[in-house]
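Record filed below.
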Amino acid sequence: MGMGISTASSAVNGANLWQQQKSNFSQLASALKSGNLSAAQQAFASLSANNPAASDPNSPMGKLGAALQSGNVNAAQQAFATMQASATSQASAAQGAGHHHHHGGGMPIVTSLPLATSGAVGTQVNTTA
């Protein structure tokens, strides 16, 4: 029983972390859009706190961090755009794969439902008649 509660709280913590990261990402986006370097640096620090990609100088996030650290807002904006494009293409690929898997997994259930439903309706009609 304790494990179930622990697992549930981990899921809640994960959801809270996701919301927090989403918020940090939005703050970073608006700070960069307005050219507010210090706000962008703060948002990036929060966003990158638990993200190993931030320490990889070749990753879009690492390049963004380096640009912010050097105070180059233009480079930071470009790196952020690259990071967004990369995240969007990864999300699209994952969504496409997920959708395909879901569709394939759902087919046998959908196919079997009309048979079960028509049998039940037929029984009800026979009982009423």
Q: What stands out?
A: The CA atoms of residues 25 and 43 lie 7 Å apart. Confidence is low (pLDDT under 50) at residues 99-124. Residues 2-100 form one domain. The radius of gyration is 24 Å.
